[in-house]
Amino acid sequence: MNMPVFYDRPAASGSGLTVAPALASWDKAESAGQIRFATFLGDVSSVVATQARTTADPLALRLDVALKDYVHLLALNDLDNYLFPLVPQLTNHIGRPFTTVWATKRHGATSSVAVDEAHAVDDPGGTHSFDVRTTASSETVGYKQQIRDQIPAGAPLPEGGITLQLAFVVGPNRNWANLWKPTIDSLGSLLGHDPGAHEWNPRDGRITTLGLHRTIDPAVGNDVVIAVRARP
Question: Does the domain at residues 6-120 carry the CATH identifier 3.30.1330?
Answer without folding.
Answer: yes
